[in-house]
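Input for the complex:
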Amino acid sequence: DGGITQSPKYLFRKEGQNVTLSCEQNLNHDAMYWYRQDPGQGLRLIYYSQIVNDFQKGDIAEGYSVSREKKESFPLTVTSAQKNPTAFYLCASSPRTPSTEAFFGQGTRLTVV
Amino acid sequence: AQSVTQLGSHVSVSEGALVLLRCNYSSSVPPYLFWYVQYPNQGLQLLLKYTSAATLVKGINGFEAEFKKSETSFHLTKPSAHMSDAAEYFCAVSDFNQAGTALIFGKGTTLSVSS
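Predicted:
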């Protein structure tokens, strides 16, 4: 089945540690996205990538980093510079046309302990 | 930049009642608009989208939305609520520029349905 796979579903991190969230898609989509979700805040865009080896900062990129070495993969690293990393993280992908919807993974819930 | 505003963070209805979730957009060009639904601890699922083909858009699970340019609105409705409609709903607009395209989301509306 085609879709987007995020792993792990739950992740616990100690303060000061970097952690990488995985996102893989087999929909053959050019564009991929990372969103952060907090209660009452909606989804806020962290990073997005339209093609391999290229990505753009979203509204809240500070404390995060990404790479796009393969079309299928768009991992997100939450660094120790991110002041409040506890949140629900959603990955999405879409074709590169504005009229086309994004398809979402099931999310990763990151908790800093 | 494009933006959307969802009026009402929480809407409560009785089973069988009309559902109305409000969304207003800010756009200087004809927008592409979307409604998504999210159940607890899951990803987002597309309900419907407006891409200028028709102003009244029908989606899944009996939902529909009407694009009103004069009011810059794209409100989501369902004639009769079901218990399974209880979820969080997000309105989104497609924001495109030289760097590419991304969906910009509203803050969401939680729909509660009581029996």
